[in-house]
Design goal:
133 residues; alpha+beta; Recoverin, domain 1; 5 helices; 38% helix; elongated
Length: 133
């Protein structure tokens, strides 16, 4: 998941919609990843690592502080959009991988060159390929 997707997922646990994540909300986020009793302790550690102003909440500016914790402790893989695009380009290398395609848009150009070209794009974590002639 990208950093933006991680932020959106994380803010789903802001149950009182105050724009911040409390310790209890953080514990629920960690529980949702399959951690049971240990979610209590992990939430304390995560809050301590991420809450730089020590107000007891993780706000929108502190969410990025959770990335290392989420990757190491929760096993969430967080990448940038550029890393996603690089991975797509490595996987494709001029060959259309059917298993990676969720949408295939075909566009015929005005010059009728009839040469298939691929351009990888990303949208909400899904790989989209635009094939054109």
């Amino acid at each position: 998941m990208t950093l933006e997707e991680f932020k959106k997922w994380f803010m789903k646990f802001d149950t009182n919609n105050d724009g911040r994540i409390s310790g209890a909300e953080l514990r629920e986020a960690i529980r949702s990843k399959g951690f049971g009793f240990s979610a209590w302790w992990k939430s304390i550690v995560a809050l301590h690592q991420a809450d730089k102003d020590r107000n007891g909440y993780i706000d929108e500016f502190e969410i990025e502080n959770l990335v290392t914790f989420a990757q190491k402790v929760l096993g969430i893989k967080i990448t940038t959009w550029q890393q996603h695009l690089d991975n797509v380009q490595k996987a494709v290398k001029g060959v259309l991988a059917v298993t990676s395609v969720s949408v295939l848009a075909v566009h015929f150009d005005n010059y009728n060159e009839q040469k298939l070209k691929l351009n990888p794009f990303m949208f909400f974590g899904q790989y989209f390929f635009i094939a054109y002639w």
